[in-house]
Each structure stands twice: as structure tokens, then as C-alpha cells.
């Protein structure tokens, strides 16, 4: 698939990771330096407040005061200088710097210019402290300095170095870039592995939906985890069952609708033809039964064997009449629509196998070679009982007309959305002028042979009527070595 869900998820996660890294880089560049400076200010103010509170309660000359200052210096990396001004001079009281004189000089140079000394001291009495950023040219370093008044009027300076913040931002962004590349690579692998697991039920649901679109409702979704996808799968299973039910009802109703108008137009004609044909077909057996019965009555034969022959003829003709009447009744029921058509989905291959099993005894007795190689199921939409009757008539017709090599071949083939059933038997072809009429009631190509095996010329008419009730086609094809009869049904090729 060009745009598979797995690929989309991988691209989405990668885009999120890249976007997050870019956002972090921008945030670092814009806000890290101000945040760093503000953090340094808070650290100096916190240290100043801590010392101011402590020294207001303690003597500046106490050893514990010195320890407290050193703790603050060590903990926060702050150089602390506390001085006392007397007579215009500064005396160092406490210092944590390795070179306190350097701090004093810096303090004096930056903050206590002679011209501004008094003004500065007055200002400090009001604001307590100032915070400034200065640069030490000798050390080529930047510092943040808090200076002011503390305790009982002593001067204090807190100094902390400022590392190269711009360099830190660059290093941070570079590190983020490397981390991002690793994260993207890892995310692609993880997403592919996770997506395959997540998309597996999605692909299964897609396959089920595709099969359902082809009217295959045998597919079922097997839920395992009972998550949202499993719930969707269960609903699709329910939908498949409902669709199959509705399809059955719809096809039945559609067939009834299509046949209704045609049925009303043909019912009178079929009734007339039925009576006429029955009368014609019954004349011969009735005449034979009557003649042989009169012979028995008048005792025209003297021996028991002759009387048995007469009785056999009478019984045989009575059986033929009964078979013909039953077939006529069946045909009439189908043509008039008295037998409702129930469209359902069933396995055609299995139905054919059951019919062939019933006919197997007579096939073996006649020395016929039967070929049917369909093993897998073939599902169609039709009335199963009527299809069985149509196929039985085809098989019986093939058995009665097979000759030569005595081969009968049954095949199932798929043609677009149709399934064709064909029955081929070796033997004589049907004359071209008779092909169009073999589906008519009582029409016989070889009347003598048909009479010989007790045929009535109704079997193929029943097949045609059944196919018409399904709105399907049937036909016959002559081959060099035999004849093939076929009919079609609604279905999807699954051979």
C-alpha cells in the first residue's frame, strides 16, 4: 500500500520528534539566557537575604558567622566580601575569595568612586542592595555582583561568575540535534514494530470488508483483546449476518417481483398447453394399457409367461404414466409460481456430490466413466432444492444418452459474477434444427429412444422452468464427441 497506516504513523511520530526538537532549540536560543541570568539574580538575592537575616542576630566577629558565610560561598559558588567603612576607609571583615584585595579593589573601583561615595551610601540605606553585571578585563570574564548594606551597616558584595551562556545554548542545541537524530531512528523502529501489531487487526478488518463487498459473508473477525478494534470487528460480524439475511430476503422478493407480471401473462397459455400436451402424451400408454388389459380379459394367451408379459407391459406403462403425471405436476407448479423460490446461499459442489452419490449405482451398472474434480466449496445464491432437481434431470438425461466411450464429465466454472454448472456426455449430437425446441414440454429428438427408456420429454422443460424462476440462463452445446448441457447461478468464483 502506498500510504499504509504503519508508514503514516512512522512519519507522524518522526514529525512530532523533529518539531519538538526544533521547538526546544528555539526556546533555548530565546529564553535560556534570560532564564540563566534571572536564576543567578535569585541566587544572589537568596544568599544576601540569608546572610542579612543571620547577621542581624549574630555578631559579625563571631566564628560561626564566618562559617555561615563560607557555607553559602561553597554551596552556591559565590564569592562573599563583607567590609566596614571607618573614616573613609574600608576594612575587610569577612572574605571567601582567594584574593580579597582584588575584590576590595573591584568593589572600590566600581561602586565607591570618591565623588559619589556619600550618595551611594545614602541610596543603599533605602534599597539595601544593587545587582549589576560587570566584566573583569584582566580575567576576561563576566560576573554578576550584588552589593549593598547588611547587618548593622556593614557593606557586602556577593559575586558569582557568569559562564558563556551563548556557548552553552549552542552546546545544548547541538546535543539536542544528536539526541533528536537518535530519537527519530529509534522512533521509526519502535513505531514500525508497534504499528504492525496495531494495524494487524485493521488489515484483518479491511480484508473482511473487502470480502463482504463481494458478497462473501463467511469471513468472521476473531476478537482477543476486547479493545475498540475488537468491538468494531464484532459489529462487522453482526453486520455480515444481517446482510446475508437481508440479501436472501431481497433476492427472494426480487425474484417474485420480476416473475409476477410474466406469470400473469403466461398462466392462461400454460394451462391450455398443459391440458393439450397431457392429453396427447397419455394417449399411447392408455391405449397400450387398454389393449393388453382386454387381452387378459379375453384370455387371448394360453401360457403363464404370456400373461406375465401382458401384466408387465400394463404395470410398466402405468409407471411411465405416473412418472409423467408427477413431472407435469412439478412443471406446472413451477411455471405457475405455486412453488415459492427461496433464495439462499449454499455450497453447490457439495450438493452435486450428493446427487452423484445417489446415481452412482446405475452409473456403475451401465459401465459409465464419471468425472467430477471439484473439491473446494463453491457458494451460490439460489433455491437449493430446485437446483438439485435441475441437476438431477441433467444427470439422468446424460445417463440415458451416453454412448461411445461412455464418459460423463461434470464441471463448475466461474464466469464473472456467475457460476456455470455443465454436464457433458459422449454420444450423438443434437441436430441443429432441434436445439431451440428441446426445452419445450413433450418435445423429443429421438422419439423411439425416448420411448425406450420411458422418457416423457419433460425433464429439460423442468430445468428451463427452474432457471426462468431464478432469472438465469441454461443451454446446450454440441461438441465433436458429445453434448454439453449447462445452467448458470448467481455467485462468486471461488474455485
Enumerate the spans where pLDDT stays under 50 for 5 or more consecutive residues.
447-454
CATH homologous superfamily label of the largest domain: Histidine kinase-like ATPase, C-terminal domain
| Assembly category | single chain
Q: What general outline do the C-alpha atoms trace?
A: rod-shaped
Task: Calculate Rg over CA atoms.
Answer: 53 Å
SSE string, helix = H, strand = E? Answer: HHEEHHEEEHHHEHEEHEEHHHEE
Portion in beta strands: 15-25%
Question: What is the annotated CATH architecture of the largest domain?
Answer: 2-Layer Sandwich
From the helix content, strand content and strand pairing, which structural class follows?
A: alpha+beta
* CATH topology-level fold name of the largest domain: Heat Shock Protein 90
Give the strand tally.
Answer: 12
What is the overall pLDDT average? 76
By CATH reckoning, the class of the largest domain would read Alpha Beta
Describe it.
- This protein has helices at residues 5-55, 63-76, 100-111, 117-127, 165-213, 228-298, 304-336, 348-365, 384-401, 432-435, 447-453, 459-470, and strands at residues 79-86, 89-95, 129-136, 141-150, 154-162, 344-347, 369-371, 379-382, 407-415, 418-426, 474-479, 482-491.
- Strand 3 (129-136) and strand 4 form a beta hairpin.
- The strands form two sheets. Strands 6, 7, 8, 9, 10, 11 and 12 form a seven-stranded mixed beta sheet that branches. The protein has a five-stranded antiparallel beta sheet with strand order 2-1-5-4-3, with helices on both faces.
- By secondary structure, the chain is α+β, with helices and mostly antiparallel strands.
- Residues 447-454 have low confidence and may be disordered.
- It folds into two domains: 5-167, Beta-Lactamase, CATH 3.30.450; 249-491, 2-Layer Sandwich (Heat Shock Protein 90).
- Helices cover 61% and strands 18% of the residues.
- Helix 7 (304-336) runs parallel beside helix 12 and helix 9 (384-401) packs antiparallel against helix 12.
